[in-house]
Design a protein that fits this description.
InterPro entries: Cell_wall_hydrolase_SleB, SleB_dom1. By secondary structure, this protein is of the alpha+beta class. Helices cover 38% and strands 14% of the residues. Strands 3-6-5-4 form a four-stranded antiparallel beta sheet, covered by helices on one side. Helix 1 (8-22) crosses helix 2 and helix 2 packs across helix 5. The longest helix has 18 residues, at 26-43. The protein starts with 7 loop residues before the first helix and ends in a 13-residue tail after the last strand.
Amino acid sequence: MARVAYNQNDINLIARMMRAEAEGEGQLGMLMVGNVIVNRLKADCLDFEDLRSIDDVIYQVQGNNYSFEAVQKGDLFYNPARGVEKKLAEKVLKFWRQHPAQYALWYFNPYAECPSTWFGQPFTGQYKQHCYYEPQPATCESVYGW
């Protein structure tokens, strides 16, 4: 059983975002970015309440900016997904999870050492250039419950 309901459009959208955000980090880096997308859809807490679709997650606006920088700045995001990226996206949608992105709701590339917290949420680990952060269990139990 898949982690979330999805269709071909969702596969393409996640595949494009994974490539745009983490192509330089290889397949594992792209899987971790995809995992954060699925976690945000499943979490229904904090900044991610009321997200009901992959489109909602990818195109979420916080403040005056999209949550994912690649939506507003990324030429790669607007190119068609390739076969390998689609396979990775489907893997994330179906079952894939791994530390440090297993329960992560945030990641970013600080171009320096990873801070110990990100908006008050604890650092869970780093993969190549991206730092991953998961919520405190008391603030977002739903991310840990599945």
